[in-house]
Design a protein that fits this description.
This protein has 176 residues and is mainly α. The protein has one domain. It is 69% helix and 0% strand. It is built from eight helices and no strands. It has helices at 3-16, 18-27, 32-50, 60-79, 109-120, 123-133, 138-145, 149-175. α4 (60-79) crosses α7 (138-145), α5 crosses α8 and α7 (138-145) crosses α8 (149-175). The protein is globular, with a radius of gyration of 17 Å. The termini are far apart.
Length: 176
């Protein structure tokens, strides 16, 4: 494959799966400018790694998630976003355009509570829940995150239990 063909193939696949880049960047960014910078860094790293992509080993979307999440998590660690006072929890207004660019209009308290919950998760669990909400199989999640399927199942169950507890508490507060 020529360099031009490789570039065209990459651009086509990137365009086809661009929502992955956007979703990951939106989940790990504090502002629109941060999101745009992270999307650019993810795209750059995808291009740098593309020559080594092996279709026989992984679906493009799986490979893309792995790189996008690694870039986002690495950047979060470098900038120490999780330090008190610097990290702003994920809120509904941060995700207004996630899911194809259409604004989320529903102001449901349960949806807001879910986004707040996701924003409080550490980087690995945030990536895990993103992939889970994308209906990825445990096997694919394990491959992207580099953990076992058993570990994926355990972590998802723990997140669900924690979420149930918080959602039950939120519902009780709203009803009171």
């Amino acid at each position: 494959m020529t360099a031009r063909q490789l570039q065209q193939r990459f651009e086509s696949l990137l365009h086809e799966h661009r929502r992955i880049v956007f979703k990951v960047a939106a989940l790990y960014s504090r502002s629109t400018a941060d999101r745009d910078d992270l999307m650019q860094e993810i795209s750059t790293q995808l291009w740098r790694s593309f020559a080594g992509y092996d279709e026989a080993r992984a679906k493009f979307s799986t490979w893309m998630y792995r790189i996008a999440l690694n870039v986002a998590i690495s950047q979060a660690r470098r900038e120490r976003w999780s330090e008190a006072g610097r990290f702003e929890p994920l809120e509904l207004h941060h995700l207004e355009t996630v899911g194809g660019g259409e604004p989320i209009r529903e102001q449901d308290e349960r949806l807001q509570a879910l986004y707040a919950f996701i924003g409080q998760l550490d980087s690995l669990n945030r990536a895990l829940i993103l992939l889970y909400l994308e209906d990825r199989s445990y096997g694919e999640i394990a491959e992207v995150l580099g953990i076992s399927e058993t570990n994926v199942a355990t972590k998802i169950n723990r997140i669900k239990q924690k979420l149930r507890g918080q959602m039950t508490g939120a519902t009780t507060i709203v009803r009171a």
